[in-house]
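Running co-folding for beta-D-galactopyranose.
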Amino acid sequence: MKFRKFLAAGAGAALAFSLAACSGGGAGSTSDSSASGDDGAMMEEGGTIGVAMPTQTSSRWIADGDAVKSGLEEQGFDVDLQYAADDIPTQSQQIDNMITNGVKALIIAAIDGTALSSQLQAAADAGIPVISYDRLIRDSENVDFYVTFDNYNVGVQQATSLLVGLGILEADGTTETGEEGPFNVELFAGSLDDNNAHFFWAGAIDTLQPYIDSGVLVVPSGQTDIEQAATLRWQQETAQKRMEDLLTGNYVGTDEKVNGVLSPYDGLSRGIITALQNNGYSGTVADGFPVVTGQDAEVESVKLIVDGVQYATIFKDTRKLAEQAVVAATAYLNGEEPEANDTETYDNGVKVVPSYLLESDIVYADNVQELLIDSGYWTQEQVDKGVA
Ligand code: GAL
């Protein structure tokens, strides 16, 4: 697997241009030719686009589904949006049905990135373009485009927030404070059938390893392999159970305390926090509650961050991701290739999939307002209640 930093130069301008270019008259219009001089490319008449999302148990995927649906509808398409309750056969069947029903394009956030080869072959045979949404679909030639974030950097940001929370790095995320620890940390990874989990882990471990090597960080459980740290289907309960087992096996009955936990997703973070609270850890990070990281800026976790209980999360603006998926789908249906800003990083085992990568931000209590509320991602009321 190859990891690479991504350059966003010009990406915003390209998005603004392509949205402007295709927003003129909706999907049914052929009168608005773009400034590219590509007068021959005709937008196809409407039609339905299939959108396959993994689960509704996480507020993030609901936000994604809603944003993709409304973006496509604004472009004049009908949308068949399906959630699969994290069940692989259900998702396969939903995609089979979409193909049978003659969708014009597919946008898929896979549950298991390796499980869709036969569906994708059928899509290719029917000439249906396939856009992989946030999670890379692996082991298939028939993935046309990938929209996601710079997932390696997300892992770097997760580890950075852990180091800042422990006081090893200054708030700028780069300057070392000289703090020598040692701090006890435990490490969690996502679902191994999700390609992203490997990128998040790689970014995080590359960042933490020097501190583990120097003894500033100690992992009392010794569980430092991704296989040991993995959480099948990103399930909150599974993370809670593993954290409870880690506490029982390595801390309870000793003088050792957990100081920090690397968590790659807010759902896992909430399970980890519950396990810690069930084992006598209480209060806020300022009072000594362990530093727990996260990802997705789910509103339930944003509330915990404002309350000082979860330390940080990573904000990936799903509105922008949805926009990119809409831009890509619209490009295909307009007879064009979507514009990639990365054509090297995401090898799916068969080919490097042209990708559009977006950037993410670390959210701490003191920038919730700026990043999440001022930008309109969540309202103050939603954050206060912790409910979307
Ligand atoms: C990943 C995604 C993360 C998180 C996780 C669990 O694929 O990149 O942002 O949502 O799934 O849903």
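Result summary
Residues 58, 60, 134-135, 190, 194, 196, 234, 265, 295-296, 316 surround beta-D-galactopyranose (CB under 6 Å).
The radius of gyration is 22 Å.
Job closed.
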